[in-house]
Amino acid sequence: MPEQNSYTPSTLSRRAAITAVAAVPLSARTSVGLAAAGDEVTQLIKRAAEKNAAFMRGDMDRWFSLVHIAPDFTLMQPFGGPASHGFDASPHRLAELARFFKNGETSLEVAQTYASDRFIILVMVERQQAEVGGLPNQDWSLRVTEVYHNDGSDWQLVHRHADPLVRRIALQQAATLARGGRVNE
């Protein structure tokens, strides 16, 4: 990916902001207005980078202050399985997540954005290294699509789909995964 599409939680370059505006489809630009759409997208990209960094560090209090999850949220986890609905934000659940994810470092590559007055979609690669589930620090990069809905006062995350297929796999490996089998390394 070109460097102009890479974001770290602490910086969002002017070039990246311009790229975000340019990625908004023309139909959305006319309904939202170019400046407004670009600003909203840019702010959500920045928030996505910050929340992802907090999550991979295990800082769930910071993550939860940034994420703004909608009541009808769906999650398609990178570990597979059916979509989950809603989110348990209890202190117990947040503490479990904090123990599961540790010492992460992240950056964000934005592949595409779409915006309208009611929805913003971010298509990204989360580049990250972290200790996850007691495993040693390693690459946990994910392909991610996030859908945000404007509820009138804020952009709420209504859907997240993440998978670890950042690197290309062979047809036979994909077929094995689709059947529920395990791919040998």
Write up this protein:
The chain is α+β, with helices and mostly antiparallel strands and 185 residues long. The chain has helices at residues 14-22, 26-32, 34-57, 60-67, 91-100, 171-178; strands spanning 6-7, 69-76, 84-85, 101-115, 119-132, 138-139, 142-150, 155-163. Strands 1, 2, 3, 4, 5, 6, 7 and 8 form an eight-stranded mixed sheet that branches. The relative contact order is 0.16.
Topology:
Elements: E1 6-7, H1 14-22, H2 26-32, H3 34-57, H4 60-67, E2 69-76, E3 84-85, H5 91-100, E4 101-115, E5 119-132, E6 138-139, E7 142-150, E8 155-163, H6 171-178
Parallel strand pairs: 2-8
Antiparallel strand pairs: 1-4, 2-3, 4-5, 5-6, 5-7, 7-8
Helix pairs in contact: 1-3, 2-3, 3-4
Helical fraction: 25-40%
Number of strands: 8
Give unreliable regions as ranges: 10-32
Strand content: 25-35%
Assembly status:
single chain
Tell me, what's the shape? globular
For the largest beta-sheet, the strand count, sense and barrel status come to:
8 strands, mixed
- Class by alpha and beta content: alpha+beta
Give a short synopsis of this structure.
This protein is an alpha+beta fold. 36% of the residues lie in helices and 33% in strands. The two termini are 26 Å apart.
Task: Provide key terms for this protein.
alpha+beta; 8-stranded mixed sheet; 8 strands
